[in-house]
Specification:
mainly alpha, Arc Repressor Mutant, subunit A, RNA_pol_sigma70_r4_t2, RNA polymerase subunit sigma-24
């Protein structure tokens, strides 16, 4: 990786536009090389390079030292290279979710409300709390993380798990209700 001086990084982090532009110019060949190595499709490389430059531009203030820059960039580029595959997986998950939603829409709303309360009550306290903070109090992930004293990633993970557990509970309740009628 090209040598980025402490002075250049500090100047870019402090908002010096010239330094930030110079940093992006210095990093672009390395970003392109990393993208060639990490992306599974050659057609993604230019998009990944552009997105990585945008990430550097927006997040330059989070980089601790020039020595940490290479590892951070590798992580960013690896994630960007995986994005199309992740979007495909999310599309498949979305289709499954739509099917589940269609099934739950058939349940009378009064029954669904009762089942939803039961589902929320069945959650562990940490999952219940994160779900209520997000969906009832309408807090952002950052606000939830600060309130709970956890990282943003932990808050997202708990919320995702809580929603999955509620969905599974509702689908199990619906399935068991249908079988008994």
């Amino acid at each position: 990786m090209a040598r980025v001086s402490d002075d250049l990084l500090l100047a870019a982090q402090s908002g010096d536009r010239r330094a930030l532009t110079q940093l992006l110019v210095v990093l672009q060949p390395d970003i392109r090389r990393y993208a060639r190595r990490l992306c599974y499709r050659a057609s993604l490389i230019e998009d990944v390079v552009q997105e990585a430059l945008i990430v550097v531009y927006r997040r330059v203030g989070t980089i601790r030292t020039p020595a940490a820059l290479a590892g951070w960039l590798l992580t960013v580029i690896a994630r960007l290279c995986m994005l199309p595959a992740l979007m495909l997986m999310r599309g498949v998950e979305e289709l499954a979710s739509q099917e589940e939603s269609r099934e739950l829409a058939k349940v009378p709303s009064d029954e669904l409300r009762i089942d939803l309360v039961d589902a929320i009550e069945s959650l562990s306290p940490s999952h219940r709390e994160v779900l209520l903070l997000r969906d009832l109090e309408d807090l952002t992930i950052g606000e939830i993380a600060r309130r709970l004293g956890v990282t943003r990633e932990a808050a997202k993970s708990r919320l995702r798990r809580a929603r999955t557990l509620v969905r599974e509970y509702l689908l199990d309740t619906k399935d068991s209700g249908r079988e008994s009628t």
